[in-house]
Specification:
With 180 residues, the chain is an alpha+beta fold. Helices cover 38% and strands 23% of the residues. Strand 5 and strand 6 form a beta hairpin. The longest helix is centred in the first third of the chain and has 27 residues.
Length: 180
């Protein structure tokens, strides 16, 4: 009888020891640590390192080229409006983006005499329904928080956050779910 009791208690002790040890291991896992922001010197060193790569060299050559300077001038012309999120008058010049672009849905627009890509991002069902009603030469009011550029594109890229036509809002970007 003693042997049977020992035979039953021994596995119970072993199993409870394993469960308890496993619980301690799970409790000891470190919490996700947020990476420290890079210092100015580290950022500068990283930029210098990237500029030495073939992509960095190509980008610097593009910036110095007439096409790159034209794009950068276009960015500078509307940067005040984008940083203040103020209205910009635009005229739709094309309902399609340049061939080979991978920016999602967008149109070409002329703002203050310069052509820009007005990009709205990947198209989701019914999200850009009113934007599809735009026609060439429509006058619109746009607001944007961001203007960017890339050597692949001959025009600055304005992210469309707000579009108004005939004093009616036809598109307003929904706030980000991530909070940023």
């Amino acid at each position: 009888m003693k042997k049977v009791i020992y035979a039953l208690i021994l596995p119970l002790v072993v199993v409870s020891g394993l469960v308890f040890a496993n619980r301690e291991i799970k409790n000891d896992t470190p919490k996700k640590s947020t990476p420290k922001p890079l210092s100015a010197a580290e950022k500068k060193a990283g930029l210098k390192q990237w500029e030495a790569t073939p992509d960095g060299i190509n980008f610097k050559q593009w910036e110095a080229s007439p096409e790159g300077k034209k794009v950068l001038d276009g960015v500078a012309k509307i940067s005040k409006h984008t940083s203040a999120f103020t209205n910009m008058e635009a005229v739709v010049t094309s309902l399609s983006l340049p061939p080979g672009s991978r920016l999602g849905f967008g149109v070409m627009a002329r703002i203050n005499g310069n052509d820009y890509i007005l990009s709205f991002g990947p198209e989701k069902p019914n999200e850009f329904q009113q934007l599809h009603s735009l026609k060439v030469n429509d006058k619109i009011i746009i607001r944007s928080h961001n203007v960017s550029y890339a050597p692949k594109y001959s025009y600055p890229i304005v992210s469309g956050d707000y579009v108004e036509r005939d004093s009616k809002i036809i598109y307003k970007r929904p706030p980000s779910k991530d909070g940023c």
